[in-house]
Amino acid sequence: MPHLIQRIVPQENLLIRPRVSFRVSELIFEFVNERVLEPQDIMQSSKFNYTLVLAFHRGLPSRLRNHKGPYNTPQRIYLSQKGFTIFDKTQKIAHLSVYGEHIDEKLSPQEYSRLVFEMLADFLLNNFKSVRQERLEQAWAEFNFLQLDQFQFPASFEEQRYVMDQDKYMTEWSDFLNKKDDKWILVKDQYKERYGF
Predict the structure, then answer these.
(1) Is the model's pLDDT at 172 over the cut of 60?
(2) d(Cα 85, Cα 124) in Å, to the nearest integer?
(3) pTM of this structure
(4) Is the dihedral of CA 65, 61, 126, 97 positive or negative?
(5) Which is deepest, 34, 49, 137, 181, by most CB within 10 Å?
(6) Got the DSSP string for the chain?
(7) Euclidean distance between CA atoms 68 and 163, whole angstroms
(8) Comparing C-alpha atoms, which of 114, 112, 81, 109 is closest to residue 97?
(9) Per residue in 90-137, pLDDT tens?
(10) CB under 8 Å to 39, separation ≥6 — which residues?
């Protein structure tokens, strides 16, 4: 039952994404897994590999402003998938999204860790009746923030590992249709041009 955490951001947010190591997301998941999921035998089946895709969106679309959720505020909205998408009877994948005005490159590891915790908590509360918010918060109160000091901040590009990092894109659909190879933009090059590492 391996667990995989992936991170994505929309193309327009590639340069203003949280500049935190991917290992912080894994650390938070492992903490929640150990304190909450394992004791309740949630997401522990040896029949499946579990993937949680964390999607970070800057901005609050007006269509989401009234969305109800245990961690939603006027500044931040969490949307988690109901259940899992199952592939090949061996993989369970769920998408967890967060929208907010301050989800950007300035987000500190401490703020980011709480954000990821709330993404996970929102998903668990929406999908598993045995999970209680009080238990999640009790567990979170025991999280040792000093662990975050082992990770460089801002993290290097290579240490961030967002899904699109090794890809390229075009900003104009006509360039793609006309196969203008010189119009491809490499995410890595664009990022390093802005931040230097």
Answers:
(1) no
(2) 15
(3) 0.89
(4) negative
(5) 49
(6) --EEEEEE--GGGTTSS----HHHHHHHHHHHIIIIIGGGT-S--TT-EEEEEEEEEES--GGGTT---TT-BTTEEEEE-SS-EEETTTEEEEEEEEEETT-STT--HHHHHHHHHHHHHHHHHHH-TT--HHHHHHHHTT--GGGGGGS-SSPPHHHH--GGGG-EE-S-HHHHHTT-GGG-EEHHHHHHHHH--
(7) 28
(8) 81
(9) 999 999 999 999 999 999 999 999 999 999 999 999 999 999 999 999
(10) none
Tokens of 140: 């979170």
Provide CATH code, domain 3-166: 3.40.390
Question: In the prediction, which pLDDT does 174 show?
Answer: 57
- Taking Cα atoms as reference points, which of 147, 50, 119 lies closest to residue 91? 50
In single-letter form, the type of residue at position 180 comes to: K
Q: Tell me which of 197 and 21 has the higher pLDDT.
A: 21
Segment (H or E) for 159: helix 157-160
Whose tokens are 């997401």? That residue is 43
What's the pLDDT band for 34 if we cut at 50, 70, 90? very high
So where are the chain's domains? 3-166, 167-197
